[in-house]
Amino acid sequence: MSVQLGMPQPREEAGPALPSVPAARPADAPAGLADRYGRRATDMRLSLTDKCNLRCTYCMPAEGLEWLAKQAVMTAEEIVRIVRIGVEQLGVRELRLTGGEPLVRHDLVDIISALRSNHPDLPISMTTNAVGLAKKAAPLKAAGLTRINVSLDSLHEETFTKLTRRPFLDQVLAGVDAAWAAGLGPVKLNAVLMRGINDAESPALLGWALDRGYELRFIEQMPLDADHGWTRRNMITAAEIREILSAEYVLSADPRERDGAPAERFEVRRRVPGLDAGGAPSAHGPVLGTVGIIASVTEPFCSDCRRTRITAEGKIMSCLFSREEYDLLGLLRSGADDDALARRWQDAMWIKPKAHGMDHVGLDAPDFVQPDRSMSAIGG
Ligand code: SAM
Ligand code: SF4
User: Which of 80, 123, 281, 296 has the fewest C-beta atoms under 10 angstroms from its C-beta?
Assistant: First the structure.
């Protein structure tokens, strides 16, 4: 069995997408987690673990990704302290717990209880694969979790197993229902479309979500897979997703403000066969719900990015595609006070790159260097 500690060399390698000389944060920089381009991060993504019980092909290798040592991962107390600094000193207004798979952390309920008791009004959501969620949804709600995002790429046992390399579809579906029943709504579902595997299923997946009142979001596959199987040519773009869905549905822009959200939202109506495609969407009947498309590769939203990320081992990442990380946990464990931790975090965010570089020169140009971490090791 080959063991991968980092990642293999990127397949599509070329020029730098990141600034080469980090600029020091000036004394008169704006408060909070501001950067050089006028953005301010208020949305914190915190990874609770790098471990996972699935092996999604677009994220992890089938085997051989070595877990972090237990002592390298943030403890519950460290997590609670870092979030407190983010909220009280740095303007964090929203927290998303992620991983790896957050549900594999045995102290998850305790972490959420502690966060909730410190921050009664903070929206705390969690992205999960929902394996084992059926039993935990009610305790998580009681502990103070606000909402849940579940990854669900297929409703077909065989396709699900092919994509995740594990036969757990029933558990995931039970988990989604339990989350809804426990009051962890609105339930959002995340689906990554893979060509020739689940792309053709996307209208059916949308229909299923609309029937149940779940908000489905399609995520463009990003080059963050441990296997380095991503290619520009093979990924399903947002334009294609809209095209595939339009066979059965009419999508029109959601009038609500996007407000920094990664997903572009559309209102969804069922297409009336034979009706003029260029006509008014309302001619196709009532709005059944919404669908989101997260087009990180082909229609990036970097200029309005409000995210700051902390990995499971307490590294600050200003962007999913950063190839530079700043150690917050090491500083915390060295005895630093809250102000010093806040300054380190601010410094790391100040040099957030302007954009991730995947979109610079068209889909066929080899301009982008894949980061060293896979999605599971960052916290998506
Ligand atoms: N294990 C949890 C889950 O799957 O929901 C949380 C962590 S997972 C890394 C967070 C999100 O990242 C999931 O919705 C997953 O579909 C998405 N993701 C993982 N790898 C991706 C990739 N290469 N491109 C796009 N999205 C990806
Ligand atoms: Fe695990 Fe989530 Fe990555 Fe799938 S996407 S392998 S569930 S971390």
Answer: 123
| Domain ranges (residues) in the chain | 40-378
**Cα separations (Å) of 230 from 163, 220, 222, 234, 366?**
14, 11, 7, 7, 12
32 is in an annotated binding site: no
pLDDT tens digits for range 89-100: 999 999 999 999
Burial of 203: CB neighbours in 10 Å, binned 0-12, 13-18, 19+ = middle
Residue 164 assigned to a binding site: no
Residue 227's pLDDT is 82
Q: Whole-prediction pTM value? A: 0.91
Least confident of 4-13, 151-160, 256-265: 4-13
Atom of ligand 1 at shortest distance to CA of 224? Answer: 23
Sequence-distant (6+) residues with CB within 8 A of 332 are 78, 81, 82, 314, 341
pLDDT at residue 308, rounded to an integer: 97
| Residue-by-residue DSSP string for 160-182 | HHHHHSS--HHHHHHHHHHHHHT
Tell the residue nearest (CA) to atom 4 of ligand 2. Answer: 56
- Region 177-192: mean pLDDT is 97
Query: What residues line ligand 2, using a CB cutoff of 6 Å?
Result: 52, 54-56, 59-60, 99-101, 129, 151, 375-376
pLDDT in tens, 326-371: 999 999 999 999 999 999 999 999 999 888 766 544 444 455 667 7
pLDDT, position 376 = 80
Stretch among 124-128, 178-182, 259-263, 338-342 having the lowest mean pLDDT? 259-263
Task: Determine if residue 306 is labeled as part of a ligand binding site.
Answer: no
> Which of these CATH numbers, 3.20.20.70, 3.40.50.300, 3.20.20.120, 3.30.1330.60, describes 40-378?
3.20.20.70
Rounded to whole angstroms, the Cα distance separating 271 from 12 reads: 39
C-beta separation of 360 from 342 below 8 A: no
* Residue 81 Cα to ligand 1 middle (Å): 26
343/172 Cα distance (integer angstroms): 40
Cα-to-chain-centroid distance, residue 192: 11
Beta carbons of 250 and 271 less than 8 angstroms apart: yes
* pLDDT for position 92: 98
As a whole number of angstroms, the distance between CA 372 and CA 228 comes to 11
The minimum-distance atom of ligand 1 relative to the CA of 52 is 1
